[in-house]
Design goal:
Layout (H helix, E strand, L loop, with lengths): L8 E7 L3 H10 L1 H4 L12 E6 L6 E6 L4 E11 L3 E6 L9 E10 L2 E9 L8 H24 L1
Antiparallel strand pairs: 1-7, 2-3, 3-4, 4-5, 5-6, 6-7
Length: 150
């Protein structure tokens, strides 16, 4: 039985800062820009997002009571050019999808490209999830771009 490949979600933004700073804001300061409203497990109880920027490092959310909810784990960490991570903020999903983020010098700033792939692992809900993330990543990267360009 063969699976049909589902097109990755691709979102890009340009930020007015050097590659090193863009990478730092994305990996070390996500709590500053992450849209907790509607994009977190804890909803109104979310306090911060932590990204342990190393291969095997966790990506997780911390609630106001100190509890944690895993979102994923780093598979590649190549500062300040590239990160790749497994992505499974919903533990009820059958398997993690996969996200690649690259940081490229561009004019007087940095181009940040995000590609979210491996939708096929989600089975019957794959197409619906992909559609939701297509708009979700636009919001997330928009918030990131504002913070990195400030």
């Amino acid at each position: 039985m063969s699976q049909t490949a589902i097109e990755p979600v691709r979102v890009s933004v340009s930020v007015r800062c050097p590659v090193e700073r863009a990478f730092e804001v994305f990996t070390q300061e996500p709590s500053v820009w992450w849209p907790f409203e509607g994009h977190s497990i804890g909803e109104g109880r979310s306090r911060e997002v932590v990204r342990e920027g190393r291969v095997g490092g966790r990506i997780y959310e911390v609630m106001d009571d100190g509890s944690q909810a895993d979102w994923g784990a780093f598979a590649v960490c190549d500062p300040p050019h590239r990160i790749e991570f497994d992505w499974q903020p919903n533990p009820e999903r059958p398997a993690p999808t996969y996200v690649v983020v690259t940081f490229t010098p561009e004019d007087e700033g940095t181009r940040v490209d995000l590609e979210h792939r491996k939708w096929e692992v989600l089975g019957a809900g794959a197409v619906e999830s992909r559609a939701s993330y297509a708009t979700g990543w636009e919001l997330v990267l928009g918030r990131f771009a504002q913070a990195a360009s400030a």
